[in-house]
Amino acid sequence: MYVRFGGKRLETYRSNAARRWALTLLYTALAPIPLSTFAGEPSQNVGKSFIKSYCAVCLEGAVIVLSCIIFSLFASSPPVVNPDAAAVTQVWSYVGELLFNMLVLVGAVKMSDRIIREMMGL
User: Fold this and answer.
1) What's the whole-model pTM score?
2) Is 74 exposed, middle or buried, given 0-12, 13-18 or 19+ CB atoms closer than 10 A?
3) Phi first, then psi: what are they for 43, rounded to 5°?
4) Residue 113 and residue 115: Cα distance in Å, rounded?
5) What is the DSSP string of 12-79?
6) Per-residue pLDDT tens for 60-93?
7) Which of 11, 21, 96, 105 is a Cys-bridge partner for 71, taking CB atoms 3.0 to 4.6 Å apart?
8) How many CB atoms lie within 10 A of CB 51?
9) In whole angstroms, what is the distance from residue 15 CA to residue 79 CA?
């Protein structure tokens, strides 16, 4: 699912999504190394912190996917416009609602990292 914003912002969101995808891939590829630290008593904290970090990266992706789904549901519903209002008022009402929905999406994507890190205590 792609949400098009246009211009440099589109490239920023693509690179951000690519970064998160590459980070998840890297965590998965390197998982055997930190998971092997569970074998020794003094190095178990490395494995525990790895599992916390891996869960945080996966949850960031889940929050981004959820926010894109919510945005697409908001965007697909017809806007609430007063038919008795002037044409300019109707247009500004529509643009305002669209901008609000886009700002909520951008905020959710940008804040997903910080929100998850705070929830996980990292």
Assistant:
1) 0.63
2) middle
3) -105, 15
4) 6
5) HHHHHHHHHHHHHHHHHHTTHHHHGGGGSSTTHHHHHHHHHHHHHHHHHHHHHHHHHHHHHHHHHSPP
6) 888 888 887 887 887 787 777 778 888 888 888 8
7) 105
8) 14
9) 31
